[in-house]
Amino acid sequence: MNTFGRNFRCTTFGESHGSALGVVIDGCPPGIPLEASDLQPMMDRRRPGVGPLSSPRAEPDAVELLSGVFLGLTTGAPVCILIRNRDAQPGDYDRLKDVFRPGHADYTYQMKYGIRDHRGGGRSSGRETAARVAAGAVAMKILGLRGITVEGRVEEIHGKTIPCDWEEEIRNAAAEQDSVGGIVEVIARGCPAGLGDPVFGKLDAAIAHALMGIGAVKGVEIGNGFCAARLKGSEQNDQMGEEGFLSNHAGGILGGISNGNEIVARIAVKPTPSIARSQQTVDTEGKVVSVSVQGRHDPCIVPRIVPVAEAMLALVLVDSLLEQEKFTAYRGDLRIRMKK
Amino acid sequence: MNTFGRNFRCTTFGESHGSALGVVIDGCPPGIPLEASDLQPMMDRRRPGVGPLSSPRAEPDAVELLSGVFLGLTTGAPVCILIRNRDAQPGDYDRLKDVFRPGHADYTYQMKYGIRDHRGGGRSSGRETAARVAAGAVAMKILGLRGITVEGRVEEIHGKTIPCDWEEEIRNAAAEQDSVGGIVEVIARGCPAGLGDPVFGKLDAAIAHALMGIGAVKGVEIGNGFCAARLKGSEQNDQMGEEGFLSNHAGGILGGISNGNEIVARIAVKPTPSIARSQQTVDTEGKVVSVSVQGRHDPCIVPRIVPVAEAMLALVLVDSLLEQEKFTAYRGDLRIRMKK
Amino acid sequence: MNTFGRNFRCTTFGESHGSALGVVIDGCPPGIPLEASDLQPMMDRRRPGVGPLSSPRAEPDAVELLSGVFLGLTTGAPVCILIRNRDAQPGDYDRLKDVFRPGHADYTYQMKYGIRDHRGGGRSSGRETAARVAAGAVAMKILGLRGITVEGRVEEIHGKTIPCDWEEEIRNAAAEQDSVGGIVEVIARGCPAGLGDPVFGKLDAAIAHALMGIGAVKGVEIGNGFCAARLKGSEQNDQMGEEGFLSNHAGGILGGISNGNEIVARIAVKPTPSIARSQQTVDTEGKVVSVSVQGRHDPCIVPRIVPVAEAMLALVLVDSLLEQEKFTAYRGDLRIRMKK
Amino acid sequence: MNTFGRNFRCTTFGESHGSALGVVIDGCPPGIPLEASDLQPMMDRRRPGVGPLSSPRAEPDAVELLSGVFLGLTTGAPVCILIRNRDAQPGDYDRLKDVFRPGHADYTYQMKYGIRDHRGGGRSSGRETAARVAAGAVAMKILGLRGITVEGRVEEIHGKTIPCDWEEEIRNAAAEQDSVGGIVEVIARGCPAGLGDPVFGKLDAAIAHALMGIGAVKGVEIGNGFCAARLKGSEQNDQMGEEGFLSNHAGGILGGISNGNEIVARIAVKPTPSIARSQQTVDTEGKVVSVSVQGRHDPCIVPRIVPVAEAMLALVLVDSLLEQEKFTAYRGDLRIRMKK
Predict the structure, then answer these.
(1) pLDDT-derived band of residue A96, with 50, 70 and 90 as boundaries?
(2) Do B279 and A239 touch (CB under 8 A)?
């Protein structure tokens, strides 16, 4: 399943060391101003090779808008965005082609498909998220027209709350041929109440699906999250006053539907599984071998996950906005009827 | 969106104080032995009125199999399961019809639809999960044929790890006109490697969606979950030996695909929002009022969520099993080809 | 696949000689006035036992509204409609349980599922359409709020154009222990331009899917249909004047999108396959046998298909209306932008 | 909706005079041998500029395989196929940008989206079918592995049954600045019984949807089609003998499920709406104008629709094959159980 969303449907394609990555967005509303340069800033926040703590793979992640835009406006036709791989080095992975790297999807892809593209993880690589960020940048433009913003930040690296010298944590891990994880928070501001669909289409469930689907994520929480499990009802409930809710323990969602407050989600990002330290694993023949994953890897992927998490939250919100439009006309009818 | 699943598609319907609840399962494989009595034990674990700490609403939750079964076997046609409400007391809610209860979906449903069934939360009530459990019990039968089991347990109540006298925690909260939450763990054993679909159909993302979609859940984690964010790569990675994985920090899922280990998920359950203690809120005219939610409520919903979480995990797994069958024939072709 | 529609999603269930039939409608807009008596007139037009040329099976087809309606208005929650079978006589089919009736789905269900409910065709029976008509009647209410009507009529029976004494054609066929088919036309009036989705969601494609999915239908055409294949471009094209289109050869659809004209579709209905005349077939052991299908059957099903075809067209239109709402807000933005 | 299929999901993108067309296939089974040269022969049968009666637009329709294939085999990851437009001449359409061409989607796209890409019909152009044919060629490879073939042919041009000098019919129409339509038949051979899903996923309904979704198609029939409406039950029913069915009036489908016979469908193709002859229409201001559509158009599109119809039928069949695999394991279980 390489498609995300029911209304704003994003289908991504491409492998880490293939010729290109991309996304087709089907269901994009017409009349949205869009050009390639709109997408680049968000692409640049995710791309590798930009800092001393990031993979040195040199990818400009330049986007090409292949379809769905005419005279600077979306037309309602599918928007295809293409990102060519410019610094693929598939040969780097030759020695890993028969070995299942610990913490990676090598073993599970082999078991699922009976075949796998071993070059840098192929389809399971974090590089796939470039396509998601491109789609997310389009979603952001639409949210912007509605006054909605989405913003993420690193909250913790290896257990150290930000702000702190967390770059040192990462450098230390790298020096030990190891890696570290952390926690990212994403917040949407300006969302109207009413987004989300009851029962199986709850907004929080959609967000959990979206964020847990980012490769390295092992946990998702909304509002008070796991802390809520340790509170009393009188502490967790958000009471209301004339101006609206008096607190936001719920993280902006009640019964799976947005309540007009800030939507707040946090994700747990595991440490990068690619480490230079020697680890025990098996090869495709089942023989025990030791492996050391050298190469161009991030000792901490957390900062680069921020724009990906923003993108996924933006995609959920645009999808929910479009879903909600279906009822707008009928809610109008109703109000008139009820006034009588 | 009241349908769950792409292959084993469960559509639930019904309100807390309407005439009935139910589920239609479309995509149930043919030839599965099924009768109403198969479902009752799991229904009984969820239903109210069975213990001193549970709501006294007396619902037998007896299921009627309306379709899709012939001579004791499923036929491949949709299975409709009906559960009549027997102890609905909609009149209890008359005084709440214009008030938005804190922590409930009253306000958000009103904002979404412009209308709401205020009787016990209507569609947003936890009573809706009776239909999910019925569907989950069918899913369990199918999993059983494949040697897969799903089992949940209460791990924590109000911060106290089980085992402990957690009934006292609940009684204390009730005595204070308050409520408590907790943590539930669900584990699937016997799953083959290969379940789950890359990118947007990851097994962990599907589980997060399924579990976060249970009304009171505010967080989901897989395997080490949020703890993974505080570990190093060398600690989190599961190394492999001749017998398979040497640990299970991943919770049985790598790259979104099951690896053959136990699948382990945990959820944070917030305290029941219905409390007798007085809270401030607004009514449908926007006027500030105080509300005390009297009636038949659980001071702690956590134990009753266990079978619901099991049901949701079972639904995800059956759906993934059916999805994976599509490739089975082709993986076979491939193996033969690669041997040459 | 027992669900129809992407926005107004109708899932039907039930067998011809099981305990009940029904439908769950998910995605029904809130605030639509709805009660059981609204549905009965359309149910009555389809139900058996009402005329000398119809099956004598005595089914009142009384509908029960189980959910989704509160104080006479839909709430946005799923609407479940239940129709109990009152005159099922499953024993009538005992002698046919091992025989594949010609022209029926007996053989194909057995090959597909390895099991089948032989009682009157089980799920493949035309009786399943009762649930579709119930859903269609709800759709009609929504269309009515938008000024759209859907109306069908018998155009031909056994090659004789209506009006003519076509009852005689049917009586003759019955006397010969045979059956006849015919052609039904359905027309939607009052549809706005803009319904339908390009490429794979074309309105005519959706109509073709909906109508060809009625059991006995072997052909579907839109507007001039097969005649268009014998015309020249200058004859088939609908030219435009100040008042709009000067003709309607297209049947109200251009490029898969409604153009504001009447939407016109025609379907070919095959003769009822159940005939008393002896036919050669095989049994479940592959042995050649002869079969004569006695019992309660219509010698001509065409008139009873009219409300089913209306229902299916209404379902397509409501689904398309809801789909189109998603863009309404954005088209508005655009108009303002373009005026500058 | 630019995605076709539930299991073998093809999402097409691109406009007639944009930079590229393409398709992403999600759900393609792993292990299928595939390279670009496999697709070219079928692309060549559809592309323009190859005969004296076809549009002179010079498009090589060379395909680029961007993803999903590794070492000559599909991997289970999405297959993206890109087709660059090489001979786009958008300037040719400048004078038509404010005029709604009769018989085209110009007016309806404008009404739907409030904006349209007027260059050669943009997304509504027949050129979009290049992407479908590419996907269809992949589907053909999979069908080939199962011994299934799909073949189409022109049956009629402007009412003249083939064989006949139908090129003369086309030349005459072109000489009169007019165009002609016709009828295409597509047949699938070698399909197993059991494909197709009851009720709303019937194989014939899926075929009708697929074929009616080709731009110029105004009618679809299966087997005897509209003729069946004029036959008696004893004439239409296919009786069975030891070797299987004794005839194929049903066109290989009973109750919406394949019966093992040849699957036979026919479509009515309207005459090309682009004609040089002057026609009356309106412009975007609602003013009546006359238009003569000059340029690079086919006076008869019927022969070029043959590979498109084959592609669409192939896509339906692969999708149904994958759907059916889900039940294979369970049907096996059942047989063992029933033997006892």
Answers:
(1) confident
(2) yes
CA–CA min distance A334, chain C (Å): 5
CA gap D27, B182 in Å, rounded: 39
- The pTM for the full model equals 0.96
Test D337 with B77 for CB contact under 8 angstroms.
no
Contact A257, A240 (CB under 8 A): no
CB neighbourhood size of A141 (10 A): 17
Which CATH architecture does the domain made up of A3-339 adopt?
A: 4-Layer Sandwich (3.60)
Asked if A326 reaches chain C (Cβ–Cβ under 8 Å), the answer is yes
Confidence of residue B327 (pLDDT cuts 50, 70, 90): confident
Which of B24, B32, B325 to mutate to probe the D interface, most D CBs <10 Å? Answer: B325
| Location of structure tokens 């089913």 | C308
Q: Chain B contacts of D329, Cβ < 8 Å?
A: 29, 325, 328
Please give the residue of chain B at the shortest CA–CA distance from C70.
Answer: B117
Tell me the average pLDDT of chain D: 92
Q: Amino acid identity, residue D20?
A: A
Residues 6 or more apart whose CB falls under 8 angstroms from that of D251 comprise C218, D204, D222, D223, D224, D225, D261, D262, D263, D264, D265
Sign for the CA dihedral angle at A119, A124, A129, A135 comes to: positive
Report d(CA C11, CA D62) in Å as an integer: 43
| Burial profile B305-318: b = 16 or more Cβ within 10 angstroms, e = fewer | bbbbbbbbbbbbbb
Cα–Cα distance measured from residue B121 to residue A212, given in angstroms and rounded to the nearest whole number: 29
The answer to whether the CB atoms of B19 and C76 lie below 8 A apart is: no
Q: How many whole angstroms separate alpha carbon D317 and alpha carbon D325?
A: 12
Q: How far is B256 from chain A (nearest CA, A)?
A: 7
Q: Torsion angle, CA of D186/D187/D193/D196, rounded to 10 degrees?
A: 0
How far does D30 lie from chain C, in Å, by closest CA?
24
Q: CATH number of the domain at D91-339, please?
A: 3.60.150.10
Quick check: B72 contacting C, CB < 8 Å?
no
| Domain regions of chain C by residue span | 3-339
